[in-house]
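Quick one: co-fold with xanthosine-5'-monophosphate.
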Amino acid sequence: MTTKQPFSSRRTTTSDDLEVSGYLEIATEKESHYTATGQTPQEVQEGIAIIDFGSQYSHLIARRVRELNVYSEVVPHNSRWQEVAPINPKGVILSGGPASVYDTGAPLAPGWIYERGIPILGICYGMQVLTHQLGGRVTPSLKREFGHAVLNQNVTNAPIFANLNSSIPVWMSHGDHIEQLPPGFKALAYTDNSPIAVMGNDTNIFGLQFHPEVSHTPQGKTVLENFLFRICGCNGTWTPQNFVPTAIAQIKAQVGNGQVICALSGGVDSAVTATLVHRAVGSQLTCIFVNNGLLRLEEAERVQDTFQRNLNIDLLYVDASERFLTRLKTIVDPEEKRKIIGEEFIRVFEDAATELRDAEFLAQGTLYPDVIESKTSESSSAVKIKTHHNVGGLPKGMKLKLVEPLRHLFKDEIRGVGEVLGLPPEIILRQPFPGPGLAIRVLGEVTKEKLEILRACDWIVIDEIKAANLYHQLWQTFAVLTDAKSVGVMGDNRTYRHVAAIRAVSSEDAMTADWARLPYEVLARISNRIVNEVSEVNRVVYDITSKPPGTIEWE
Ligand code: XMP
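Sure, here it is.
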């Protein structure tokens, strides 16, 4: 049944609003697929809900807020209050987005954000949404404002500007602009091209035409800090120290007396997951390390060694390489590879679980970007990029129940938790390695022969990057075996062999990445060594694509 509730803005609702209002769309929705963190309000003491209008920067806003020790989650723009309430929102941030508020079906904010009196900060499109919904006017600009601008304040005492100079550099990226303020709002700052670049009312609603979350707005963090602590009254309790006991208590509550198996990969995510679960339920946990035949050179041995030296937890080694490689035969489509690997992992765990005292739970180190990029229910306005094997690649009808204590954390937060748990730097600082392993770096069909070639190239890349002291400065460095062959000349002979690519990126959270400007000498050494030491490769190329538009992995 449709329950039409009044749209609670400061002006009379018109039939026009009723048609376009996101609020009414939500009011008619019986069941949303979105669920917030899953933690109860007592567990998330204070949160900021980031209403997502499809900006590439939405996750960046979440990161910036969390860097200020306040928990935040990106939620779909049509989320209902009940779905967001578990994070105990002390404030709401409306993200930017590609739409124009007057587009047919343009996403708008849900009515509860206005009804609940919670502080609101609208960023770019989010400011335009505020203006539109609260009775002001947004119009297309003759000139799109993109890039650096200088923001000048009109007022001296606005809380959103505390600790800032009266003029600051900011980053703009918008076409539409605010032509008329909503009733009760004042223009607080302007730029050359935007007479209303910041607006605010007398209570707790603010709009910024610029992006405080990007690094091109150097004082953006202070603006967000002002919003969180001066306007929302947050306390800044989101720290790894606080996270650890909460996570342990939650795992205990979820698992009870059940047996848990934990998929260990050797990386920081699964090591932190295993340690948390071990602290929560002790010997009810068994860790499994699966060799899927898609690991790097000597990786299986190294992981077992590191694990045994550093973590006092039982580790079961399962060699399932034949199983994986058989299923991957003839498969060339990247998504199909990912799905097969995800499914096979679960089947291996299920077999192990039956042998291991009928384990009921599977703990895995899924992290927030995996969730966002696999477009699960938690991020329904984001477009699916890849099926991360531990999120979207799970088979239907899986018997094991998932324990994912890191599902809402970014990588650097996980590293912080790892430090609090006392894990060694060799685990905490290891570069990420994807669950589907080398299968998504061998382009085309995965064969044993191609895997061997890639392993040899990859070893050289890592070896040289470590020798140049660059390993810890870069997010990831690895080799890719392309599906191409090229003609070369070695000695006096013609060769026709594989083309290998080098990938090296810097990144904060893998959601965006920049290709690394590796020194030419390092590139030269890698290239030389590969063509000399790996006889099946006669050409090496360097990938100079950032993310976006590329992704970090090639498949
Ligand atoms: P992309 O290629 O999507 O990768 O830019 C982003 C980050 O995620 C890693 N990655 C994965 N990690 N399971 C994982 O555990 C996966 O299926 C997966 N796919 C990509 C990738 O290495 C990079 O750090």
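If it helps, Residues 310 and 423 are 7 Å apart (CA to CA).
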